[in-house]
Amino acid sequence: GVRLCLCGQSKWWVRTWNIEDSGNWEAGVAPCSGRQITLPPRPDHPLFLGSALKVGSLSLPLDGELIFGSDAKLTLDNAIDDSCKFPQEGSEWTHTGSDSWWDPFAWSHEKNFRDPSASPVPHVHRVPCTADVAGFPNASASLFQVHLAPPRIAVQALSVGKKNYTTSEFASYARSSSRFIGTSSGLVPIYIESADPCWDITGCPCARDTPGDGQPQFLSRAAAICEVARPRCPKPICSNPIPMEGFCCDTCGADIAINHGGMLALTNVKQLMSGFMADEQPKDVLSHAAKMDDDKIHVYFTATSNQGDYQAAAKAFHQNFIK
């Protein structure tokens, strides 16, 4: 018999306004000992220090604030740390604008594909699906702000730090906290509810599109995600990126679309893919399998470096699959 499951995943919000967060700097590394750190002169949001940080010097914003969390400790130390990867000439602060719930680059998948440009997970599946758990960082250790906008947002569970919320608890928390900014309609912005069990062995959609409450023009979930993602598409590492199902950006990858005929279980495809990756161990290649909105099962291969031959991996997997 085929085992059926909801297969919800945990997806973690990773966008903060913390100065020790490597994702906020162009170099992609956190500031460290002996380096000169220049914070943006006019940041779009208050900045935050949530942990211990040792730097050579720190230039504060001209117009803006830096908030210290309860565990913050700032030490000025000119001693150069050889393990410090932060550039000696400094690095540009890159976090600007507002952070939308629908931003696929703001979420980390539990498989921990940390580099968003190399992740094989389609953008439309990086934002929590209805069967997923959405996790936000501990509010005392980080400063984040999430803009909630249509279409309807629904998740199986939601936590901030270690606290889990129900729909009504979250609504009052969102009203009292500036961490979640809703639209002006004043409706409950996030529904925390049990997802329908998935009885389809070929897999179930990430979310069913339902017109948002009182939203005259209907925006699909995929359209909302790609609207946020497209202006921020990373520079491809190859010369021939391609459009792939569920991705908002052309990607250096391979996309194998499989007709399931209502009989092929998604769990079987995932097992075949995991077995293939374990046996072949293609260097610097990542893979992911999912049922997409075109009602096909897709197996994706991407590379984490120029050495990753995702095309050869896809070809070999395809040959194994049709045996």
From TrEMBL:
The UniProt record lists the keyword Isomerase: no
GO biological process: protein transport; receptor-mediated endocytosis
Record's GO cellular component terms: apical plasma membrane; endocytic vesicle
Pfam families assigned to the protein according to its UniProt record, in alphabetical order: Amnionless
Cellular compartment(s): Cell membrane
Main subcellular location: membrane
Membrane topology: Single-pass type I membrane protein
Keywords, ordered alphabetically: Cell membrane, Membrane, Protein transport, Signal, Transmembrane, Transmembrane helix, Transport
Keyword Calcium applies: no
InterPro entries assigned to the protein according to its UniProt record, in alphabetical order: AMN
Highest taxon in the source lineage: Eukaryota
Protein name, entry field: Protein amnionless
Source organism of the structure: Meganyctiphanes norvegica
Lineage: Eukaryota, Metazoa, Ecdysozoa, Arthropoda, Crustacea
